[in-house]
Fold this protein.
Amino acid sequence: MTVAFLSAIQALIFRVALVPGASIMPPLVALLGLFWIGNRLVLPRVPRNPFVGVRTAWTLSSPENWERTNRLASKAMCVGGVFGLVMGAWARRRASSRASAACSSRRSCRLPSRDVVPPEEGLAGR
């Protein structure tokens, strides 16, 4: 699961680097939401250990504490993951509405790069 998540992050970074005007935040928030939902499926099945799960002295002291705490934490992660998916979809919709508003006020819908000087200014504008 971690390898798939990190591969998706890398693909997202490539997309943002290669597509002008692409935003990283909406898909990143949705991807994190999916990761948290995936953790919800894994966390209750993890045996007691010092590396993965909710690791406190209290949870490590008893198998019952470990199981109940990680079950509750997995439910909280699922709620957070669903919230992340909803917020990612909302941010994507908001970003697309901003882009369409920007297109209606310009002749061209391509967003200029930040370091490109518009042709009408040329070198005299610097």
